[in-house]
Every structure is written in structure tokens, then in C-alpha cells.
Amino acid sequence: MAGIELLSDQGYRVDGRKPNELRKIQARMGVFSQADGSAYIEQGNTKALAVVYGPHEIRGSRSKSQHDRAIINCQYSMATFSTGERKRRPHGDRKSSEMTLHLKQTFEAAILTQLYPRSQIDIYVQILQADGGNYSACVNAATLAVVDAGIPLRDYVCACSAGFVEDTPLVDLSHLEESAGGTQLSLAVLPKAEHLALIEMDSRLHQDHLESMMDAATQACKDLYAVLDRVVRDHLQEVTTSIGE
Amino acid sequence: MNTNSLTQAPWHQTTVEPLEYHRKFLKENCRPDGRELGEFRTTTLNIGSITTADGSALVKLGNTTIICGIKGELAAPPADAPDKGYIVPNVDLPPLCSSRFRPGPPGEQAQAASQFIADVIENSEMLQREDLCIEKGKLSWVLYCDIICLDYDGNILDACIIALLASMKNVQLPEVHVNEQTGLAEVNMKKKRHLNIVKHPVAASFAVFDNSILIVDPTSDEENLSTGFITVVIDEEEKLCTVHKPGGTPLSNEKLQDCINRAITRNKEVCKLLNKVMKSMKAK
């Protein structure tokens, strides 16, 4: 690969991380008052916000309602100032619509929708700054927001991206690593049972390498799960002590 | 979960008879969240958090959260004003900020807010459009000011103006030269300079209750119950930039004068806050 070396000889990446190291994660829950559940996450420089409304009565077309489960309505939106070049259409373009659909499908797998027939759960995700791993940050933020809203989940949904350079799988790609070309894998996992909610892979990859990439990504998701779980427990402790006072 | 209100009233009072509930407080010259009639909510400001934008600011006015990001692009100047650049504000009220907004194209409120901000920028002359010109007739800057509401709890116009002002002060544009031989622009990312902000307009919004009582900085509940609105924008020289009163209850001259006086004090409060935050940023 010409240009920047994604993996140095000593095994360090451009930003100094090891191949299986995640970026620094900071997350907060319950950040907005209007929403039923909200969360903010920072993975490295990628900043994502997720807001959940629901479950509530179906708005708009009644024909969409399901008699035995809730429908999930998602919207993925990127702020116009979130990317290096100003993004002309924050949502409604093809890439955003695809992400929206992926989010919807991921959460339909995780949320116990049978408990809320004929109702609707809205999940809105906003990217404030995009530095790679947009889908992963969205899914992680949305998981925290759904937990904050008190909607029952089968398990946390943790997502991570992975790449493959010089026979080494790289985990949690930054924008620089994503745009360098090469294989990219997005993975959303329910960590306890290691069930896969969503896999998406771009570019060519030899099938022998697939397993090592998937293992690296799954392990990264499990690490992420530990972080998110810690955030939820800390938040719960904060909320219960302030109610008790 | 909202455990923010100081008084946890029985739910039927706040849901079934909200107007009576508010009236009880107004009789004592205060409001359900403990504020006085002329008191603004706590304002917090965070500048420069979005590094992909040329300038950014996050404002919290109580629960109302607004983020503004400014990006500069190069374009040919308008034909009727070849020595001026463009400033394009845009207010977005996405469905994530409140359940009252639906997904889709910008609604009436968002478009009206965008136009209001554009008017304030032009009327207050906070920035000279000539400063944005790089080469007369050939190249100028376009400043796209994108304002997104993240949490809607009333009084977004005030918060938008503060966010806009703070992010304008935070903007750093690189130096651009037009190469005479090739006619192409050469951008020097290493040399950046701030914008020259000459005026600092600050808005103060009021809601009219029961055709007579004026309250400052209404929350979302108060906005729903009020009978009229008025917004006054004043700059630091105590000059009026904009007075915006979209219909609603008629107001007497003295009430208007009260509003203007309150707006003047608000301008001082906000400018002080802004200077404090900018100083603490420079110290880093």
C-alpha cells in the first residue's frame, strides 16, 4: 500500500495503538431531559449521540402497526460539520438510509419487542464528529440510550469495526485507516452468548483470514461490553444515590 | 428521567390543569422551577469541542441544548456584491430534540428560526461581509453556520444566538492567496486567523402569560401555555438590532421598554460569560 504505513514494523498503528487495542471510550447516559432515554459516547474522536423515545403509540400510518410486537423507527443523521468536507445532506442520502436500516435491523434483534404490541420505539442517532467507526459508535450509543429508557433488551449490543493489514487484523478503525482502502468489517454482537446481530464486510478478503478477523472483532466487542457495562452501573449508582437523598 | 424540578407536584396538577398550576406560582411572583419572573436559567458554554468544524460551540440554557458548527468553504462572490462573502445560517430541529418534531424536511419553526438568525446577523453587522472576500470578483469565503438543537426545552432563539456568537469567535480560517499565473487558490493551513467580530448581539426572549404577565426565558411547558412571545436582540453598545414579536397578545409601550432594559442586562451577562470562556481557552 502506497503512502501511509498503517502498521509499523514494531507493530504499532498510526495513532500509536496496538492492532487489537480499542480507542479511548468515554460515555454518559441520561444527558437529555426531553427524551425517555439518551446517551453520548466518544470513541477516540468520533462523537455520537443517541436518543430514544418510547415505547409510545404509533405516529403516522397506522398500517405499519404490528399486532404482536413494537415497531422500531430509526434515524441516522450526521451533522453537516462532522466530516472534513461539509456534508451537504445530513440524512436522506443513500449511505445514511443504509445505516438507518442496519441500525433498525440490529435493534430489532436485540429489543424484546413482543412486550409492546402495537406500539413504536424511536431511536435517533446523531453523529457530531466522524472519525471512523461511525456505525459502531451509533450502535454503542443506542444500546446505552435504550438501557437508559428502561426498554428490555436481550443483551447489550456492542459493535466494532475491523480491518486487515499485512496478515494482522486491526480493530476499531479510525477514519485514516478506513480511507486507506483494504478490507473493512463491521460487526455487531450480543456479547454474553456471542450471537452476531449484524456483519458487513467490504472489499476482498481471502476466506482463510476471515476467521482471525472475526475473532479479533468479537474480542474487541467483548472488551467494549465491559466498558459499557461499567458505564451503566456507575450511572445507576449515581441516580440511586441522588434519589435516596 | 426528569428529576430536575424543585417541587414534585402531584401529576394531575401538572398534566390535567397546567395553567392553574403555573398561575399559583405566578401569583407569588415566581415560577415552578424556582426562578423569578426576570431570571434566566443557568447558561453553560463550551467552545471548540468539534475539531472537524472550523469553529464550534455548545450552549446549555437550563435543559435546552444547542450546538453550532461553522465550516468555511471557498466560492465565487455574488455578482451584485463582488467584494462580499456569504454567511449562511441554518437551524435544524431534529426529531431527537423533542417528540413534537417529526422526521422529514425542516418544519415551519426551524425555517422561521433560520430566517431570524439570518436577519440578526445582517442587522447587527456583527461581521463585515467584506472581510470574507479574498479577491474581489473572483474568490470569497462562504461561512456555513449549522445550528442543531439537541434538547428542546423552550427559548431556542436565545440559545442559538449565543451559540452562533461563541462559535464565530472560535472560527479560525486559513490564509488563502489566489495564484496569479494559474488562477487557482492556494490555501495555507498553517497560518490561521480569527474572524473580526465587531458587534456582539445577544437575544432575550419573553413569553406573555394571561395577557399581562411577562416572563423571561420560558421553558417548553411555559411556551405551550403562554399567549404571546417577544424577542429583543441588543448589542453591547445598547443598540437595538432586532425586535421580533410574532402576533400574540398586544403589549403596551412600557412593557416593551421593560423588555429592552432586561435585554440590556442580559447582554452584559452573556458577554461576561463569553469572555470568561474565551480566556480560559487561551490559557490552555
Automatic annotation (TrEMBL), chain A:
Gene Ontology biological process terms, A to Z: nuclear mRNA surveillance; poly(A)-dependent snoRNA 3'-end processing; rRNA catabolic process; rRNA processing; U4 snRNA 3'-end processing
CDD domains referenced in this protein's UniProt entry, alphabetically: RNase_PH_RRP41
UniProt keyword terms in alphabetical order: Acetylation, Cytoplasm, Exosome, Nucleus, RNA-binding, rRNA processing
One cellular-component annotation, GO: nucleoplasm
Molecular functions per Gene Ontology: RNA binding
Gene3D superfamilies: GHMP Kinase, N-terminal domain
Domain Exoribonuclease phosphorolytic residues, every copy: 21-152, 155-219
Entry's localization field: Cytoplasm; Nucleus, Nucleolus; Nucleus, Nucleoplasm
Keyword rRNA processing: yes
Main location group: cytoplasm
Subunit architecture: Component of the RNA exosome core complex (Exo-9), composed of EXOSC1, EXOSC2, EXOSC3, EXOSC4, EXOSC5, EXOSC6, EXOSC7, EXOSC8 and EXOSC9; within the complex interacts with EXOSC2, EXOSC7 and EXOSC9. The catalytically inactive RNA exosome core complex (Exo-9) associates with the catalytic subunit EXOSC10/RRP6. Exo-9 may associate with DIS3 to form the nucleolar exosome complex, or DIS3L to form the cytoplasmic exosome complex.
Family per record: Belongs to the RNase PH family.
Protein name: Exosome complex component RRP41
Organism expressing this protein natively: Polypterus senegalus
Phylogenetic placement of the source organism: Eukaryota, Metazoa, Chordata, Craniata, Vertebrata
The gene coding this protein: Exosc4
